[in-house]
Amino acid sequence: MTGVRCMLMRGGTSKGAYFLAADLPSDPAERDDLLLRIMGTPDPRQIDGIGGAHPLTSKVAVVSPSADGAADVDYLFLQLGVEEPTVSDRQNCGNILAGVGPFAVERGLVPAGGDRTSVRIRMVNSGGIATAAFPTPGGTVGYDGDTAVSGVPGTAARIDLDFAGTEGSSCGALLPTGRPRDRIDGIEVTCVDNGMPVVVAAASDFGVTGYETDLSHLRDRIQSLRLAAGKLMGLGDVSASSVPKTTLVAPPRAGGMICTRTFIPLRMHTSIGVLGAVSVATALLLDGAVGHDLADVPPPGAPMGIEHPAGRLDVVVELDGTSVRRSSIVRTARALFDGTVFPRSSR
């Protein structure tokens, strides 16, 4: 059998397969076919592959040395379908991003920089640059620590992710429609992109509280909303795309800034994505944006608690008017195994 070198890692509240670009076919079509066979897609259980039968565990990071002088490594994120044989590069993933720096050190792409190492990462999907800082005691990646992330059992080492501005947004602008508020299908929305295209709407406008654990009955309405929003945001036909995400907001009830329920793109997220949370938090800081009046906004520079079904995620966003100076977030990651993965036959 011919296998492929692979490291399985948990990044934030997601799990994915991490590869060196050099270990995969250079042709995108051949690469995608191989990854589908590695993950076990299409199959609702992904029983014949290493996927976890959920969008949050059917993810891939492709990492390589960067030719961009502003970055150390390039990171291409690929979202693989579970039941459908799809591979999408239309979005970033901030949770999987959390494992890219440690993976780069593990693979020797970046040397450990003492007790703590910083890795500059070019997010190929959008062109943005993120910096990941994490412990490397004794020149090796340290995964143990006392940082807790809602939705992840136990604790692990702290990883600081820092994003500069919105130059890497998929839509090319913080407010892709040029307005803080639009009306789609009779619903007031804010279309925002600070690293992740998101449509923000009030849960109450959908006849729900925003605190539910099951909102599957909203699937058709969410799809109609995001299809229309995708065109307004300059993303074109998004019927086969995982972006934009849709986030319903409600007043906080656990000491945070806002309570959220996010769809990825039609299945309700068990928590919230990193860059999705950054985009939502950014929108809520803007006068006139949907949810601004529902949010308990902290002082400038203070962490903004984004409540979600599994707990809370703290985000820091610094604005200069309607321009983003920087955003940051804390995540954890852990290597789960490193070895050779064997794809199913192409027959």
Secondary structure elements and pairings:
Blueprint: E1 4-11, E2 14-20, H1 28-39, E3 59-65, E4 73-80, E5 87-88, H2 94-97, H3 100-106, E6 116-123, E7 128-135, E8 159-164, E9 182-184, E10 187-193, E11 197-202, H4 219-232, E12 245-250, E13 258-263, H5 274-284, E14 304-308, E15 311-320, E16 323-331, E17 333-341
Parallel strand pairs: 2-3, 4-6, 11-12, 13-14
Antiparallel strand pairs: 1-2, 1-17, 3-4, 4-5, 6-7, 7-8, 8-16, 9-10, 10-11, 12-13, 14-15, 15-16
Domain module tally: 2
CATH superfamily of the largest domain: Diaminopimelate Epimerase, Chain A, domain 1
* N-to-C span: 14 Å
- What helical percentage do the residues reach? 10-25%
- At the first level of CATH, the class of the largest domain is Alpha Beta
Radius of gyration: 19 Å
Separate helix tally: 5
Compact summary:
Its EC number is 5.3.2.8. The chain is of the alpha+beta class and 347 residues long.
Structure description:
The chain is an alpha+beta fold. It has two domains: 4-164 and 332-341, Roll (Diaminopimelate Epimerase, Chain A, domain 1); 182-321, Diaminopimelate Epimerase, Chain A, domain 1 (Roll). The protein is built from five helices and 17 strands. The chain has a 17-stranded mixed β-sheet that branches. A hairpin with a 2-residue loop joins β1 (4-11) and β2 (14-20). Belongs to the PrpF family. Keywords: Isomerase. This is 4-oxalomesaconate tautomerase. GO terms for molecular function: isomerase activity.
